[in-house]
């Protein structure tokens, strides 16, 4: 008897586990469009409501991986990548990829664009003149082999089933399914032919996962499925209850990443998260026998300028300026209006509505409300104050970089609402306790 997609939908609707064959056939039908949008939507809703076990999740991720091309590498070192669930000022990929390359890894980092209040790595790279984030496969192989890293976007032949299924999920209120989130993330990463994958799950008021238990559930699922699919995978859960970097906005974040690679640590949290992810990657890849040895190698690659050199070589190999790291101000776009945002009173920053900070960047034109929207890579925020820091007449909350004065003032107003500043005269014992809990 012929296989019918509606029978697979019925079984999942009734809470039954699907066989590997059922899932493979369903994903093949999504890929070649023999399964209708209505059937795909019904499948997504059934999965959202009834869930999947680990075996089903592995079958779904690998079937989506196999819906297109799977890269194959013949390199003298481990092939690694990292995925973040996204946040504000999360520019970790930019220093992490060259840092790992300088330590013997090969990093074909397939990244995405921003949507909603979070930024996207590809949007940041779009601020670099000439940088080609969609190179041919041959060029990708060449750059990774010669430089050690290449940060690019998903090509049309990598996990095409994910693109069609995600578009359907986006309009059917099924984006939140952990089963489908895991399959979507891993289908692209598994298709990259990785040996090692590092996962950075963000949690807090600026993350998609606002609660610890949700972040832990997602991290555990990704690790279980990726390892089950044959890729050595670890995860860290990191705080996104405040911006990670001092800047939020595409060109501004690239400039801060270059500054970090040149030795200027503007945000200790950004550097700590980058090092933690890099340490775990080297350990998982077998390039270090202890966390101490991994950190020593990474700090040497950073202090010697080797990581900065890899970043420069990557940019040049993918069409960008060969001297970007020496003269970023000559190449990165700059907004015509820059204004400081003064705090309503002198005191200590107590907390930040991080999601509101991201939405302020979106309102400036630095993010997307819809997938088809364009991006102004010059606009954003710089010099963001962090919790526990004193602000006042000589230390604003941030600098707004805008296209017009009106947009700058609107963003400034949004930031004032996003920050909670404790009066300098009040007892700060409660604030100090809060900060210790967040650390």
Q: What is the residue-averaged pLDDT?
A: 92
Give the spatial strand order of the biggest sheet: 1-4-5
Order of helices and strands: HHHHEHEHHEHHEHEHHHHEEHEEEHEH
Q: How many distinct helices?
A: 17
Structural class from helices and strands?
alpha/beta
Low-confidence stretches: 431-439
Please describe the biggest sheet, giving its number of strands, its sense, and whether it closes into a barrel. 3 strands, parallel
Total strands: the figure is 11
**Which shape, going by the Cα principal axes?**
globular
In a few lines, what is going on in this structure?
With about 450 residues, the chain is of the alpha/beta class.
Fold and architecture overview:
- The protein has 439 residues and is an alpha/beta fold.
- The chain has helices spanning 5-13, 20-32, 37-50, 54-65, 93-101, 121-125, 137-147, 160-170, 178-191, 212-228, 250-261, 268-284, 291-303, 306-317, 354-366, 405-418, 429-438, and strands at residues 80-84, 107-111, 149-153, 196-203, 232-239, 337-341, 347-352, 380-382, 390-391, 398-402, 419-423.
- Helix 1 (5-13) runs parallel beside helix 3 (37-50) and helix 2 packs across helix 8 (160-170).
């Amino acid at each position: 008897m012929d296989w019918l997609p509606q029978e697979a939908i019925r079984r999942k609707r009734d809470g039954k586990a699907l066989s590997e064959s059922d899932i493979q056939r369903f994903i093949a039908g999504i890929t070649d469009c023999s399964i209708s949008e209505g059937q795909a939507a019904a499948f997504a809703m059934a999965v959202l409501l009834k869930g999947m076990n680990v075996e089903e999740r592995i079958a779904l991720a690998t079937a989506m991986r196999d819906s297109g091309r799977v890269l194959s590498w013949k390199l003298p070192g481990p092939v690694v990548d990292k995925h973040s669930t996204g946040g504000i000022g999360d520019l970790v990929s930019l220093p992490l990829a060259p840092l790992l390359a300088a330590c013997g890894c090969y990093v074909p980092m397939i990244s995405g664009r921003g949507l909603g209040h979070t930024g996207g790595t590809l949007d940041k790279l779009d601020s670099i003149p000439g940088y080609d984030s969609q190179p041919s496969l041959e060029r990708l192989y060449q750059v990774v082999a010669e430089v050690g890293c290449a940060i690019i976007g998903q090509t049309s032949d990598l996990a095409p089933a994910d693109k069609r299924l995600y578009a359907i999920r986006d309009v059917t209120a099924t984006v939140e399914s952990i089963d489908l989130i895991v399959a979507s993330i891993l289908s692209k990463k598994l298709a990259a032919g990785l040996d090692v994958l590092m996962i950075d799950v963000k949690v807090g008021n600026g993350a998609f996962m606002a609660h610890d238990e949700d972040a832990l559930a997602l991290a555990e699922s990704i690790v279980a499925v990726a390892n089950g699919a044959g890729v050595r995978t670890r995860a860290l859960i990191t705080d996104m209850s405040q911006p990670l970097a001092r800047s939020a906005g595409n060109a501004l974040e690239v400039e801060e990443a270059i500054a970090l690679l040149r030795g200027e640590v503007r945000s200790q949290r950004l550097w700590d998260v980058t090092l933690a992810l890099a340490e775990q990657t080297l350990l998982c890849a077998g390039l270090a026998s202890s966390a101490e040895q991994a950190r020593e190698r990474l700090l040497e690659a950073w202090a010697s300028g080797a990581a900065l050199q890899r970043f420069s070589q990557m940019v040049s190999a993918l069409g960008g300026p060969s001297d970007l790291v020496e003269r970023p101000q000559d190449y990165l776009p700059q907004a015509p209006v820059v204004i400081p945002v003064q705090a309503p009173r002198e005191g200590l920053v107590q907390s930040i509505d991080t999601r509101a900070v991201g939405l302020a960047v979106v309102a400036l034109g630095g993010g997307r409300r819809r997938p088809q929207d364009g991006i102004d890579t010059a606009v954003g925020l710089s010099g963001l104050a962090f919790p526990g820091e004193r602000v006042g007449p000589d230390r604003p909350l941030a600098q707004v970089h805008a296209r017009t004065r009106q947009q700058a003032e609107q963003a400034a107003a949004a930031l004032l609402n996003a920050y909670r500043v404790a009066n300098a005269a009040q007892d700060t014992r409660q604030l100090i306790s809060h900060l210790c809990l967040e650390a």
